[in-house]
Design goal:
517 residues; 16 helices; 20% strand; disordered N terminus
Length: 517
């Protein structure tokens, strides 16, 4: 039997919690812990909150999401706000998109599919090019409704031991989750046309994975879109991060922006505070919200990390990276929907190239054109384009200083497939973030923008644990811990971590205080 953990917070009315990083997981944890009565201090190296879920603003007045642009399954973050005495929909205006996004299947001829949660229209759109698959839509929805019900208890609980993976909830879910299959294999049960399967599986890119390798349980990603909708927060996803900061501050959270943490202080294996700005800040618990591969080797001594040593972190499997273009463009672009996904004719070859470190010459890409929904994202009469191209992460050794200009031209040229012919002469602002930029400027380990891969040996208890392995008083939130990447999942992970801290420090859960507005 383990000896009881020392709990200095029991001698205080309000424990002190230090949170490293103001990304979505850190913000959610700060809100929930403050609502539970803790004194919470958030240390953030940048001058803004949100991590990658922030807004970039150019001097010319263009606004871009830095990272996530799809806002899915708002149920979880609504519940986080509600448990803190706030209303998400009063803080942020959410617009449900219809169509949710436009898919362009490159080929001769190319095919365009405006994906919609209106299943009658979706069936008709699929029947126009794959009539045999239209009937599979409702079967897919029914089966994945059942799959989500089975998977949700797994996503909502910590996995603090390997034995926990043999619990009744996990074993009960296995027949529905079909972990022996990959996403594309599972979708063959409903759809014979590979283009239709791509329409329901490209979402694995939210995890930085291939539908031909990603475990089949993640078909729930596309199900969530069709069942619950795709939303745009007015002002971009960064507006949600700012709203979380406002609520946290009303609860008494202190934000120390522009304050990088130099290290986490330990007494043996117990985290007892952080060192920042040349000062020691004592804490009863420390929450780490930095990118796992980047932050842990820098902040936690290797000597106390048997499960996730520097060696293991270096050998772990990571997602792809992304090559980003943020373009301020004169004029509007009626050819584009709000979200546009170009699926290359060589989609599978693209994936093989990325997995082996080859930069694709005819890549798939995603383009957001938010001003069709939110004109405030650009000056009047202008557009703010966000372009994302999946590419290899830095473990493959590409020289992005040499490749950047060439690949930028390839990405811009691919817009012609979307009907955008004359954009070069209309660009008034441009910013590029390459995989090297993700690592150097935004502290993303190996430039792997979707964190650790979500294969079966890096999930549940095999993923870095919310109560971080081999330590006491140190907790993780973010895409590098259970349950994984993606905004709804990160918010859920923050709830898991918060419950563990409340349990360990004998705190009461959040009590939904009334907040002054």
């Amino acid at each position: 039997m383990n000896a009881p953990l020392p709990a200095p917070a029991l001698r205080r009315q309000r424990p002190n919690i230090a949170i490293i990083g103001a990304g979505p997981g850190g913000l959610a944890a700060a809100m929930l812990l403050a609502a539970s009565g803790a004194r919470v201090t958030v240390f953030e190296k940048d001058d803004v909150v949100g991590g990658r879920t922030r807004t970039l603003t150019s001097p010319e007045g263009y606004r871009f999401d830095l990272g996530p642009t799809f806002f899915l399954y708002p149920r979880i973050i609504r519940e986080v706000f509600a448990s803190c005495g706030a209303d998400l929909d009063e803080e942020v205006e959410l617009v449900q998109l219809d169509p949710q996004y436009r898919l362009i299947f490159e080929g001769s001829p190319s095919i365009t599919l405006d994906a919609t949660g209106d299943l009658d229209r979706m069936e008709a759109a699929i029947a126009a090019f794959a009539p045999q698959d239209a009937a599979g839509v409702r079967r897919f929805m029914a089966d994945n409704r059942w799959k989500l019900d089975a998977f949700r208890p797994v996503l909502e609980k910590p996995f603090s031991t390997t034995a926990r993976m043999l619990g009744k909830d996990v074993l009960f879910s296995l027949p529905q989750l079909r972990p022996h299959l990959q996403v594309d294999e599972d979708l063959r049960r409903y759809f014979s046309d590979p283009r239709v399967r791509l329409a329901f599986s490209f979402q694995t890119k939210y995890l930085g994975m291939s539908p031909f390798k990603c475990p089949s349980m993640f078909t729930i990603l596309s199900f969530l879109e069709y069942e619950y909708g795709v939303y745009h927060p007015i002002g971009g996803c960064g507006a949600v991060s700012e709203a979380m900061r406002r609520v946290a501050e009303r609860l008494g959270v202190e934000f120390r922006l522009g304050t990088p943490v130099e290290r986490i202080a330990f007494a043996g294996r117990r985290a007892v505070g952080v060192e920042a700005g040349g000062r020691h800040h004592a804490a009863d618990a420390v929450v780490l919200n930095g990118d796992f591969a980047h932050a842990v080797p820098r902040l936690v001594p290797d000597s106390i990390r048997k499960a996730w040593s520097d060696r293991k972190i270096a050998k772990a499997r990571y997602s792809c990276s992304t090559f980003m273009l943020y373009l301020g463009v004169e004029g509007t672009l009626p050819q584009l929907a709000h979200h546009n996904v170009l699926l290359s004719e060589s989609y599978q070859e693209n994936i093989r190239q990325i997995e082996t470190g080859v930069i694709p010459e005819a890549p798939s890409l995603y383009v957001q054109n938010p001003t069709v929904t939110d004109p405030g994202m650009a000056p009047p009469g202008h557009s703010a384009l966000y372009m994302l191209v999946p590419v290899p992460n830095l473990r493959h050794g590409a020289d992005w200083a040499a490749e950047q200009a060439r690949f930028r031209d390839i990405a811009i040229g691919r817009l012609k497939v979307l009907g955008v012919e004359d954009i070069e002469s209309r660009i008034r602002y441009e910013r590029i973030v390459s995989p090297q930029g993700w690592q150097d400027e935004f502290a993303v380990g190996f430039g792997a923008t979707f964190n650790l891969s979500h294969d079966l040996l890096q999930m549940l208890s095999f993923r870095p644990r919310n109560r971080f392995n081999d330590t006491e008083g140190l907790y993780l939130v973010g895409g590098g811990t259970h349950p994984g990447s993606g905004l709804p999942v990160i918010y859920e992970g923050a709830r898991i971590t918060t419950r563990l801290i409340q349990e360990d420090l004998a705190m009461e859960p959040a009590v939904a205080p009334a907040l002054a507005r």
